[in-house]
């Protein structure tokens, strides 16, 4: 039996593949390389000494997906494949709805045709919208403020309806908070195209000299130092959450939303100062206006993951930043 990992050459997917290979799982990756490179596969082999089956295909391509299920004995799917840039989703909404929503529907249809009804889905804390107070828990109402968030919400709703219609489905809908960090080897990590949108890739590219200075978006939020607070989680902890979710699928009937966060909030300036201390590099920054759509404080109530999956994040902020810096300094231009 094999696990199908869509988007498995991406940031979170590659770290999850490493954790699954450590457990001797047989892995099939499907990725269209829209935001990743096959060089990741060599790095995964260097870390684990093991190989995976890699299929370059688009989840929207029904025939290609059918071929995957015909030629491999797939037991469960971890579905990471998707476009994830919030700003770009507002300028290219059709691409985002097509890729993320239509692609997921195609994947789900092909899974159903082949009787594969075990799924772990990459959702996001973005589905909590802007009106819920932190800590955010899974019972809170969901909403979305941009097309990317809408795609996650739509897919979640599709999954809830699907699981209601057929009790054979077991689905863990994992709502990630802010994944950062990298594998401790420094061989795999986050490798965004172009100018990064997210804080950590931006800070690490300033530290390595690729970008001149950070803009801190707002210092007048109602937070201890006025800058935005987020729940940063080490990508390896997140990957291990997927392993636990896969193990738990046999006990899940239906679709269960589960937060994957630490439960702690960290401000932008705390990130900058910790990064500076750990890397020994200067991180020039200036205060810029608030970024549209940002909210002051977002962190998880992680109790469902603790209780249901017997999982909690183990790595602290210093480890997250040390691992980010090791990856960035060893690979100043990413995988290229
Ligand atoms: P990533 O871009 O590094 O990985 C996604 C992978 O999916 C890439 O390798 C890309 O090439 C592939 N892909 C995209 N569209 C595809 C398609 N149609 N067919 C096949 N492959 C396709 O992103 P990531 O950070 O690893 O995120 C993985 C998942 O987690 C995404 O669904 C993302 O929305 C979700 N998520 C990410 C974050 C985050 O901050 N990184 C937060 C919450 C949720
Ligand atoms: N942020 C910032 N400068 C940047 C990128 C992000 O000040 O160049 C801030 C942002 O306003 C937020 C935090 O860093 O308070 C995390 O932003 P990110 O985009 O990484 O995650 P998200 O806002 O999607 O949770």
Can you give a write-up of this model?
Helices cover 40% and strands 18% of the residues. The protein has a domain at 2-180 and 233-262 and 301-314: Rossmann fold (3-Layer(aba) Sandwich), CATH 3.40.50. Helix 3 (62-71) runs parallel beside helix 5 and helix 7 (199-207) packs across helix 11 (317-330). The radius of gyration is 19 Å and the shape is globular. It is built from eleven helices and 13 strands. It is of the alpha/beta class. The protein binds nicotinamide-adenine-dinucleotide and uridine-5'-diphosphate (UDP). Nicotinamide-adenine-dinucleotide binds at residues 6-7, 9-13, 30-36, 58-60, 80-84, 99, 103, 122, 124, 176, 179.
CATH homologous superfamily placement of the domain at 2-180 and 233-262 and 301-314 = NAD(P)-binding Rossmann-like Domain
Topology as H/E string?
EHEHEHEHHEHEEHEEEHEEHEHH
CATH level 1 class label of the domain at 2-180 and 233-262 and 301-314: Alpha Beta
Strand order of the biggest β-sheet? 3-2-1-4-5-6-11
Task: Please identify the structural class as seen in this structure.
Answer: alpha/beta
What integer value in Å does the Rg equal?
A: 19 Å
**Strand fraction:** 15-25%
CATH architecture of the domain at 2-180 and 233-262 and 301-314: 3-Layer(aba) Sandwich
The shape is globular
End-to-end Cα distance? 33 Å
Low-confidence residue ranges = none
The CATH topology of the domain at 2-180 and 233-262 and 301-314 turns out to be: Rossmann fold
Major sheet: size, sense and barrel closure? 7 strands, parallel
Q: Please tally the helical runs, counting DSSP H or I stretches of 4 or more residues.
A: 11
- Mean residue pLDDT: 97
Which ligands does the model contain, each kind named once? nicotinamide-adenine-dinucleotide, uridine-5'-diphosphate
Helix content: 25-40%
- Say how many strands there are: 13
């Amino acid at each position: 039996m094999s696990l199908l990992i869509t988007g498995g050459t991406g940031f979170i997917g590659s770290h999850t593949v490493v954790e699954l290979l450590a457990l001797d799982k047989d892995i099939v990756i499907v990725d269209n390389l829209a935001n990743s490179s096959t060089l990741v596969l060599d790095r995964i082999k260097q870390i684990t000494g093991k190989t995976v089956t890699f299929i370059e295909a688009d989840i929207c391509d029904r025939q290609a997906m059918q071929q995957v299920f015909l030629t491999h004995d797939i037991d469960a799917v971890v579905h990471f494949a998707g476009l994830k840039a919030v700003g770009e989703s507002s300028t290219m909404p059709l691409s985002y709805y097509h890729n993320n929503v239509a692609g997921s529907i195609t994947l789900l249809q092909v899974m159903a045709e082949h009787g594969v009804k075990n799924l772990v889905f990459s959702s996001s804390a973005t589905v909590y919208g802007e009106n819920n107070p932190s800590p955010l828990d899974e019972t809170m109402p969901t909403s979305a403020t941009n097309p990317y968030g809408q795609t996650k919400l739509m897919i979640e709703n599709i999954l809830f309806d699907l699981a209601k219609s057929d009790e054979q489905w077991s689905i863990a809908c994992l709502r990630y908070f802010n994944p950062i960090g990298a594998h401790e080897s420094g061989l795999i990590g986050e490798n965004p195209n172009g100018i990064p949108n997210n804080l950590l890739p931006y800070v690490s590219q300033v530290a390595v000299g690729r970008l001149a200075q950070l803009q801190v978006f707002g210092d007048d939020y109602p937070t201890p130092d006025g800058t935005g607070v987020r729940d940063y989680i080490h990508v390896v902890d997140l990957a291990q959450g997927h392993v636990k979710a896969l193990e738990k699928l046999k006990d899940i009937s239906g679709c269960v939303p589960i937060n994957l966060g630490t439960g702690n909030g960290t401000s932008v300036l705390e990130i900058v100062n910790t990064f500076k201390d750990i890397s020994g590099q200067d991180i020039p920054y200036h205060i810029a206006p608030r970024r549209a759509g940002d909210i002051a404080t977002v962190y998880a109530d992680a109790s469902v993951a603790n209780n249901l999956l017997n999982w909690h994040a183990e790595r602290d902020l210093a480890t997250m930043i040390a691992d980010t810096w090791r990856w960035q300094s060893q690979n100043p231009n990413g995988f290229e």
